[in-house]
Design goal:
Layout (H helix, E strand, L loop, with lengths): L1 H55 L9 H12 L4 H13 L6 H20 L8 H19 L5 H24 L1 H4 L9 H16 L5 E2 L2 E2 H17 L1 H18 L6 H14 L5 H19 L2 H20 L2 H10 L4 H64 L5 H7 L1 H17 L10 H6 L3 H52 L5 H13 L4 E10 L2 E9 L6 H14 L3 E8 L6 E8 L3 E10 L9 E7 L4 E9 L3 H20 L4 H14 L7 E9 L4 E7 L4 E5 L2 E5 L16 E5 L5 E5 L1 H4 L8 H10 L6 H15 L8 E10 L23
Antiparallel strand pairs: 1-2, 3-4, 4-6, 5-6, 7-16, 8-9, 9-10, 10-11, 11-14, 12-13, 12-15, 15-16
Helix pairs in contact: 1-2, 1-3, 1-8, 2-3, 2-4, 2-5, 2-6, 3-4, 4-5, 5-6, 6-8, 8-9, 8-10, 9-10, 9-11, 9-12, 9-13, 9-14, 10-11, 11-12, 12-13, 14-15, 15-19, 16-17, 17-19, 19-23, 22-23
Protein name: Stage II sporulation protein E
Keywords: Hydrolase, Membrane, Transmembrane, Transmembrane helix
GO molecular function, one term: protein serine/threonine phosphatase activity
Length: 830
C-alpha cells in the first residue's frame, strides 16, 4: 500500500509538471499568436488609412483614378480587409474637393461583378486586374456622360485618360502593395519596384491636399519627411528621385505647387549627400536645399512657411523610430541592411538545404543499421533453425516407419539426439563417410543405421546448398549496409560543406582589399569562397595591365604571406564586357607536383589494348594514378578495364572511403554482366600535401618505387574485381619522397622474362639500369627493352605508367609589406 501510494504521489507530481509544461507551451504559443496578430492588425490599419487618403486624392482637380486601383489590388492581396478598405475609400471620397462618391461606388460594384463572373468560370488572375479596372472606370464614366447628354470630345478624352491612369496605377500598386501586406518572400526589390513604392506613397500624400495646420501645409511636410527617410537610407540618388516623383504627383494634384518638384529634388540631393553623417546632417542638408530655393522662388511669407514646413518634417524625422528606418533600408538595393537581409535569406536557404541533406544522411544511416541488425539476428537464429530442421527431416524419413521410434525418441530422446548430432558433425567434417565408419555404439542403439546415414548425407547436401545461398544473401546485406553507410557519410560531409559556405568572411575580404590597395593595385571586387587549410579559394576582379603579371608576381605572394599558406593562381579569365578587368581565382598551392608518362602496346600490334590507365586529380588534394587490365585482349577487355577505372574514379571523387569504393566496384562489375568478366585494378593515391601514397592493388602485378639507386617493390595478393562476391581489400601506405619515381605495369610487362626467372628481381634490375628521370622517357625506355627482350614480338597487352613526385617550388617568394598582419581564419563548422 505504501508503494502504491508513493507511486500515485510521484505520478501526480509528474503529471503536474507535465501539465505545467503544456500550459507554458500553450501560453507561449498564444503569446506568439497575439504578437503576430498585433503586427498584422498594425499593417491592416495602415492599409485602411491609405485607402481613406486615396479615396480623397484627386489630380487635375477632377480625376480620381487612385481609389479603384487600390481596392482592386487589395482584393487580390488582402481580401480579408477588403470591406474595411472599401468603406475607408468611400469615406475619403465624401471628403474630397469634388465629391465623386457615386462614381467610385459604381466602379467598385462593376469591378466586383466582373471579377465574380471570371471566378465562376475559373479565369480570375491578378494579371487581369489592370484591364478590369480600366474597363470598370471607362464604362461607368462613359455611361454617366451619356446619361447627362454631355459627351464631347474633351470629356471623352478626359474619361479615357482617367481610365488609363487607373490601369497604370493598378500595375504600380501590384508591385508596391505587397511590401505592406508582408507577402514577399525576401527583401530584394528592384529599382523599378522602389519607384513604384515611392509613387504609391506620393499618391497617398495627394489625399492630404488642402489640409492646413496654421501656416503649415500637411502634404509639404509629408513630402519632405519622405525625402528625409529615403535620403538617409539610399543617399543622393534616392533622395533626388523621391523629390522628383513626389513633386510631380503633388503638382498634378495642386497646380500651384509646380515649383515643389525642383525644390524637393534639390533638397533630397543635398540631404542624400550628407547621409554618411547622421540624421542631423541629413536634416541640415534638406533645410539648406529647401531654404535656398524658397528664397529665390517665393515671397518672404512663402519662405517663412516653407521653413516651418521643413522644421516640422525634420521634427517628425528625428522622432521616427530606428526600427522603421532599418525596415525601409532592407528594401533599398545597395544598403548594408539590404545586403544583410539577402545574406540572412541565403543563409536560411543554406541551413534548410543542409538540414535536408542531414536528414537524408540519417535515413541512409538508419537503413544501414537496420540491414546490419537484421543480418546479425539472422546469423544467431539461423543456426538453431537449420539444426532443428535438419533433425526433423532425418527423423521423418528414417524413423517414421521404424518400430523402435517411440523407444528412441520418447524414452531415450537425449541419447538419440546426441548420436544424431555426432553423426552430423562427422558428416560435416567428412562428407564421404561410409557405412564401415559408423561408430559401434550407434549401431547398438539404432537398427537402421545405414538408412539414417544415407538420409543424413542427402539432407546435409541440401543443407549445405541452402547455407551457401543464405550466406550469399547475408554478404549482400553486409555490402548494402556498408554502401549505405558510405553514402550517408558523403551526404554528411556535403551538409558540412553547405554550412561552411555560410560563414561570414567580410573582415578577411576587407583585410585583403586594404593590403592590395596599399600596393597601388586597382581591385574591383574580392570574394573569399573558402579559407580552409589546403582548400583556399579566393576570387578577385582587378584592373588588368597589359605586360605585367601582377597576379603571380605580387598578389599570390602577398596572399601567401597574409594567409600563412602557399597560394597560387588557379585560373585567369579576361572579361569580354568591360575593358580592362579580369577575373582571377587563387587557390591552395600543393606542396608536391606529379608528372606522369605512359607507354603501351596491344597484343600482336592490334589497334585495341585490353589495358586502361587514368591520371587525374581527384579534387580533394589527392592525385590518382590508376591502371587496369581487363580479362583477355581486344575491345571488350578494354571496355571492361575502362569501366572499372571510371566507376572507381567517380566513387573516390564523391568522397567515398577507399575500401568501400573497391567493394562497391566489385559488386557493380559482378551485376553488370552474366559472363565471367573481371579486371585488375592498380591505383596509387598520392597526397599532394605530404606525399603519403596509398596503394590499392586488386589482382595486379607489383609496382616499383625507384629512389636513387634503390628499387622498392610493392605487392598485394588480392583477386581481381568481379570474380568473388566479397573481397578483402589490403591498402598499402608508403610515404614518398621528392624525386621518387613510381612505376606501375600490367602483367604483359611483368611476365616478360618468362616463368623460369625471378620476375621481381629481373624487373628491379631493369628499372635500376634506366638512367633518365623524365617519366615519359622512362616509360618509353622500359617498353623498348621489353620489345628487345622478345625480339619485337608482342605476346600480350603491355602498358606501363610512370609518375615522378617533386616538391613544388613557387615561382615567386612571399614578401612582407609593412602594416600587414597574418589573417585570422574563421572556425570550421563541425
Amino acid at each position: 500500500m505504501q508503494r502504491r501510494s508513493l507511486g500515485a504521489v510521484m505520478g501526480s507530481g509528474w503529471s503536474g509538471i507535465w501539465q505545467k509544461a503544456r500550459v507554458g507551451v500553450h501560453s507561449a504559443a498564444v503569446e506568439n499568436r497575439w504578437v503576430q496578430a498585433f503586427v498584422a492588425k498594425k499593417w491592416s490599419l495602415l492599409l485602411i488609412v491609405m485607402g481613406f487618403l486615396l479615396g480623397r486624392a484627386m489630380i487635375l482637380e477632377q480625376l480620381s483614378p487612385f481609389a479603384l486601383a487600390f481596392v482592386a489590388v487589395i482584393y487580390f492581396t488582402r481580401k480579408d480587409i477588403l470591406h474595411w478598405v472599401g468603406i475607408a475609400a468611400f469615406a475619403g471620397s465624401l471628403l474630397a474637393v469634388n465629391v465623386n462618391t457615386g462614381y467610385l461606388v459604381t466602379e467598385i460594384v462593376i469591378f466586383l461583378l466582373i471579377q465574380k463572373a471570371l471566378e465562376k468560370y475559373e479565369r480570375s488572375d491578378v494579371s487581369l486586374a489592370p484591364l478590369l479596372v480600366f474597363s470598370s472606370t471607362f464604362l461607368v464614366q462613359l455611361f454617366a456622360e451619356l446619361v447627362v447628354s454631355n459627351l464631347t470630345w474633351y470629356s471623352l478624352m478626359m474619361l479615357t485618360v482617367e481610365a488609363l491612369l487607373s490601369l497604370v496605377l493598378t500595375l504600380i500598386f501590384i508591385q508596391a502593395i505587397p511590401v505592406f501586406t508582408l507577402t514577399r518572400k525576401n527583401y530584394h526589390l528592384k529599382h523599378e519596384e522602389i519607384i513604384c513604392l515611392i509613387i504609391l506613397l506620393a499618391s497617398v500624400m495627394t489625399g492630404t491636399v488642402g489640409w492646413l495646420v496654421g501656416p503649415v501645409t500637411i502634404e509639404h511636410v509629408l513630402s519632405r519627411y519622405l525625402i528625409l527617410l529615403f535620403a538617409l537610407v539610399g543617399g543622393a540618388p534616392f533622395g533626388a528621385s523621391v523629390g522628383v516623383v513626389t513633386g510631380l504627383i503633388l503638382s498634378l494634384a495642386n497646380s500651384n505647387a509646380i515649383y515643389q518638384m525642383s525644390l524637393l529634388a534639390f533638397s533630397g540631393m543635398l540631404a542624400g549627400l550628407l547621409k554618411e553623417g547622421n540624421r542631423l546632417m541629413v536634416a541640415f542638408g534638406m533645410l539648406i536645399g529647401s531654404s535656398i530655393l524658397s528664397f529665390y522662388m517665393g515671397s518672404s511669407v512663402d519662405m517663412i512657411n516653407s521653413a516651418w514646413e521643413s522644421l516640422a518634417a525634420v521634427a517628425l524625422f528625428l522622432l521616427t523610430p530606428r526600427s522603421v528606418i532599418l525596415m525601409l533600408a532592407k528594401y533599398v538595393p545597395g544598403t548594408q541592411e539590404n545586403l544583410k537581409s539577402q545574406q540572412d535569406y541565403a543563409k536560411r536557404v543554406r541551413d534548410v538545404t543542409a538540414g535536408r541533406v542531414e536528414q537524408f544522411s540519417e535515413v541512409f544511416r538508419q537503413l544501414a543499421r537496420s540491414f546490419k541488425q537484421l543480418t546479425t539476428e539472422d546469423e544467431v537464429s539461423r543456426k538453431e533453425e537449420d539444426v532443428g530442421h535438419f533433425m526433423n527431416a532425418v527423423a521423418q524419413k528414417a524413423c517414421e516407419s521404424c518400430w523402435k521410434k517411440s523407444q528412441c525418441w520418447d524414452q531415450k530422446f537425449y541419447q538419440t539426439y546426441t548420436y544424431m548430432t555426432d553423426m552430423m558433425s562427422q558428416i560435416e567434417t567428412k562428407e564421404s563417410m561410409t557405412k564401415k565408419q559408423i561408430p559401434p555404439e550407434w549401431k547398438k542403439s539404432c537398427i537402421r543405421t545405414e538408412q539414417v546415414l544415407d538420409v543424413m548425407k542427402g539432407q546435409y547436401s541440401l543443407y549445405k546448398n541452402d547455407r551457401h545461398w543464405k550466406k550469399q544473401i547475408i554478404d549482400s546485406r553486409h555490402l548494402v549496409a556498408e554502401q549505405l553507410s558510405g553514402v550517408s557519410q558523403v551526404m554528411e560531409d556535403l551538409a558540412k560543406e553547405i554550412k561552411r559556405e555560410g560563414q561570414e568572411l567580410f573582415l578577411q575580404e576587407e583585410q585583403i582589399r586594404n593590403a592590395l590597395e596599399e600596393l597601388g593595385l586597382s581591385i574591383h571586387t574580392i570574394d573569399v569562397i573558402s579559407l580552409d587549410e589546403g582548400n583556399i579559394e579566393i576570387e578577385i576582379i582587378h584592373q588588368y595591365t597589359k605586360g605585367f603579371d601582377e597576379c603571380r608576381k605580387i598578389i599570390a605572394p602577398l596572399l601567401s604571406e597574409i594567409i600563412g599558406e602557399n597560394v597560387a593562381v588557379m585560373r585567369e579569365e579576361m572579361h569580354t564586357r568591360g575593358e580592362g578587368y579580369s577575373t582571377v581565382v587563387f587557390g591552395s598551392a600543393k606542396e608536391y607536383e606529379v608528372e606522369t608518362g605512359v607507354a603501351g602496346a596491344a597484343k600482336g600490334g592490334d589497334l585495341f589494348s585490353g589495358d586502361s590507365y587514368s591520371t587525374v586529380e581527384l579534387g580533394n588534394g589527392k592525385y590518382a594514378v590508376a591502371l587496369s587490365d581487363g580479362m583477355g585482349n581486344g575491345e571488350r577487355a578494354r571496355a571492361e578495364s575502362e569501366t572499372a577505372l571510371s566507376i572507381l574514379q567517380q566513387l573516390l571523387q564523391s568522397g567515398m572511403d577507399e575500401k568501400l569504393a573497391i567493394k562497391s566496384l566489385n559488386s557493380v562489375l559482378m551485376l553488370r554482366s552474366s559472363d565471367e568478366m573481371y579486371a585488375t585494378v592498380d591505383m596509387a593515391l598520392i597526397d599532394m600535401y605530404n606525399a603519403n601514397t596509398t596503394f590499392m592493388k586488386i589482382g595486379s602485378t607489383p609496382s616499383f618505387i625507384k629512389r636513387g639507386t634503390e628499387v622498392i617493390p610493392i605487392s598485394a595478393n588480392n583477386l581481381p574485381v568481379g570474380i568473388l562476391s566479397e573481397i578483402d581489400v589490403d591498402l598499402v601506405s608508403i610515404p614518398l619522397q621528392s624525386g621518387d619515381i613510381l612505376v606501375m605495369m600490367t602483367d604483359g610487362i611483368f611476365d616478360a622474362p618468362g616463368h623460369a626467372v625471378n620476375k621481381e628481381m629481373w624487373m628491379k634490375r631493369m628499372i635500376q639500369e634506366i638512367d633518365t628521370t623524365l617519366p615519359q622517357d622512362f616509360a618509353d625506355c622500359l617498353l623498348e627493352r621489353i620489345f628487345r627482350h622478345h625480339h619485337g614480338e608482342i605476346q600480350d597487352d603491355m602498358t606501363v605508367v610512370v609518375a615522378r613526385i617533386e616538391r613544388r617550388q613557387p615561382e615567386w617568394a612571399t614578401f612582407r609589406w609593412p602594416g600587414i598582419t597574418r589573417m585570422e581564419r574563421p572556425k570550421t563548422v563541425s
